[in-house]
Write a structure and sequence with these properties.
It contains four helices and five strands. It has 162 residues and is α/β, with parallel strands linked by helices. It has one domain: Rossmann fold (3-Layer(aba) Sandwich). A five-stranded mixed β-sheet has the order 2-1-3-5-4, with helices on one face. It is globular.
Length: 162
């Protein structure tokens, strides 16, 4: 059985920064066997701990690159680094991109890794998710569910050839 981790990153008190947590929480209600949801409300560096004992990982976080609010960025950092401009205004001192590059250097990346950045608009303390970001959440959930299904199918194919 493939072990898949879905990690939502964010801060509930900072508006659109909470979108990764929102997606992760909504996904908890209908998970296939072998999929775990984890939340990170602090530093991106804790990613390295959270993806231990997983075969595939999906990370969801807010981004702020100047794209239209609610834009969805799907990245596969095993094939290329996350562009620095995607997380220009991270509310995390050590962001997702830096954590992934550190894990790459330490040879601690999971076998499969997908990162979703949902373009944010408001990150003020005490604000809620903006309308544009809220509208993107169902699309991200569908895409994450497709990734989970693809990881499971791929794992069955590998096991069938073993």
């Amino acid at each position: 059985m493939v072990r898949i981790g879905v990690i939502g990153i964010g801060n509930d008190a900072r508006g659109d920064d909470a979108v990764g947590l929102e997606v992760a929480r909504r996904l908890q209600h209908d998970l296939p066997e072998g999929v775990t949801i984890r939340e990170i409300c602090g530093e991106g560096l804790s990613l390295l701990d959270r993806w231990q004992d997983t075969d595939a990982v999906i990370v969801i976080d807010a981004s702020y690159s100047g794209a239209a609010p609610g834009s969805i960025h799907r990245l596969e950092p095993l094939t290329q680094p996350i562009p620095k401009e995607l997380y220009l205004c991270s509310t995390h001192a050590f962001g997702v991109g830096e954590a992934i590059e550190l894990a790459r250097t330490l040879d601690q990346l999971p076998s499969h890794l997908v990162v979703y950045g949902i373009e944010g608009k408001q990150f003020d303390i005490g604000s809620e998710l903006s309308a544009d970001v809220r509208l993107a959440v169902p699309d991200v959930i569908r895409q994450v569910q497709q990734d989970i299904a693809a990881f499971r199918t791929q794992a069955r194919g590998v096991q069938g050839h073993a």
